[in-house]
Design goal:
alpha+beta; Aminopeptidase; seven-stranded mixed beta sheet; 7 strands; binds coenzyme A
Amino acid sequence: MVNFSEEFRPQLSEIFFETSTKKEFKDQKEKDALFWKYVGFYLSHYSQYAWLAVQEGKLLGYVLGMPSTQDPSLYAIQPHLPAFEEHFKTYPAHLHVNCHVDARGKGVGKMLVQKLLCQLKDQNVSGLHIMTGPTSDNKVFYQKLGFDYAVELNLILLLGIRI
Ligand SMILES: CC(C)(COP(=O)(O)OP(=O)(O)OC[C@H]1O[C@@H](n2cnc3c(N)ncnc32)[C@H](O)[C@@H]1OP(=O)(O)O)[C@@H](O)C(=O)NCCC(=O)NCCS
């Protein structure tokens, strides 16, 4: 498990767009904006919370986190966040995790989330949340990791874990 370094940005981008549900973009600007919203922002501002699973130079997966979601510069690009604010008191941190399609189901995602959880625990962060679709099958992944708090709002499912 290594911290993010620039050499992995192209592979990280590939994994991000492969996992994204949005596949069509009207122009490069729209594509870049989506990347910035869920990846670039975190790499620029919170790279110490960006962890990579790498094997022989190949990126297997990544997790991007931040310890306190209540950051106005994040709200500016993720306008769905304020509606969930009351849950950020107990679960202030959040993450985005994605694995390469060939690396799924082998424990990589679990290892990445646990790495971030350990880091946040050392910093006395009280909890962590993720957001996904209410019918998304990845919610089982988080539930198995111990995310036992769930709130659904505006077709978004927030799952939380105390640290
Ligand atoms: C979701 C994801 C990050 C999980 O990582 P992973 O490396 O495949 O998962 P792991 O192998 O660490 O799985 C840990 C446990 O969760 C389960 N699990 C993982 N993904 C699951 C899924 N989609 N549905 C049901 N269970 C799942 C595993 O079976 C495993 O269970 P076990 O402990 O009983 O063996 C990865 O599959 C992925 O990138 N998926 C596509 C993109 C995505 O959904 N990202 C999350 C966006 S919110």
